[in-house]
Amino acid sequence: MLTVNNVNLHYGAAQALRGVSVTAEMGKITCVLGRNGVGKSSLLRAVTGQHPVSAGTISFEGEVLNGLPPYARAKHGIGYVPQGREIFPLLTVQENLESGYAPLGRKDRFIPDEIFSLFPVLKSMLGRRGGDLSGGQQQQLAIGRAMVTRPKILVLDEPTEGIQPSIIKDIGRAIRYLRDSTGMAILLVEQYLDFCRELADQVYIMDRGEIVHEGPAETLDTAEARRHLTV
Asked: In Å, how far are 64, 171, 186, 207 from 230, measured between CA atoms?
């Protein structure tokens, strides 16, 4: 499992995370909810090594990851789907997927068939440039690219942002399939409450850089949870 224990994170003098502790278990979807600017993306940057923590520890499968760069965390099995997708717009769909080969040994450098089973549109667009795809198609490509790395945990930063409802349903089915068929851990940051309610096993809510609520998905319907999510 992934364990974030009492983590602080600063951007200069500004503190973005304050004593944050989160656990993401294998075979479960863990959702982190919260309004804009409460520290959700900062939490994922800490987990993936995009930004160093000021205090606390981040460990995966019992090994402390503090100080490891992002590429080393990818080799440990952490797959990252960043906010805004960040695909390579001038590379083809196939080349974008193949960029996920970086942390893999030579024998594993191929695109798994299950990516095209989950997102058939990618197979029909292998020769098209990533920048020519729609937002929803780019999101599917970003998830596919992360899957190429053979992750043990998939970390997704607001995968429904700016995506049409039909694609949101496809992404939800893909995330549920990955949990149920592979047993991987899923750490999902979201603002879309219904998407999280449908998928999550465990839920955390953040406010002002802190965890203010945690529990099973059913607790999202409590008055306390709604209070922290209401704008």
From this structure: 35, 25, 25, 11
Q: Which of 74, 77, 83, 80 is nearest to 26 (CA)?
A: 77
- The two structure tokens encoding residue 115: 């990516």
Question: Which CATH fold would you assign to the domain 2-229?
Answer: Rossmann fold (3.40.50)
β-sheet bridge partners, residue 79: 154
* Residue 191 CA from chain centroid, whole number: 13
- C-alpha span between 78 and 71 (Å, rounded): 9
3-state secondary structure 81-150: ECCCCCCCCCCEHHHHHHHHHCCCCHHHCCCCHHHHHHCHHHHHCCCCEHHHCCHHHHHHHHHHHHHHCC
What gap in Å lies between CA 40 and CA 37, rounded to an integer? Answer: 7
Global confidence as pTM: 0.92
CB 157 within 8 A of CB 45: no
CA dihedral 191, 50, 181, 197 (to 10 degrees): -10
Contact 175, 199 (CB under 8 A): yes
**Residue-wise pLDDT tens digits, 183-228:** 999 999 998 888 998 999 999 999 999 999 999 988 887 777 777 7
**Contact 196/173 with Cβ under 8 angstroms?**
no
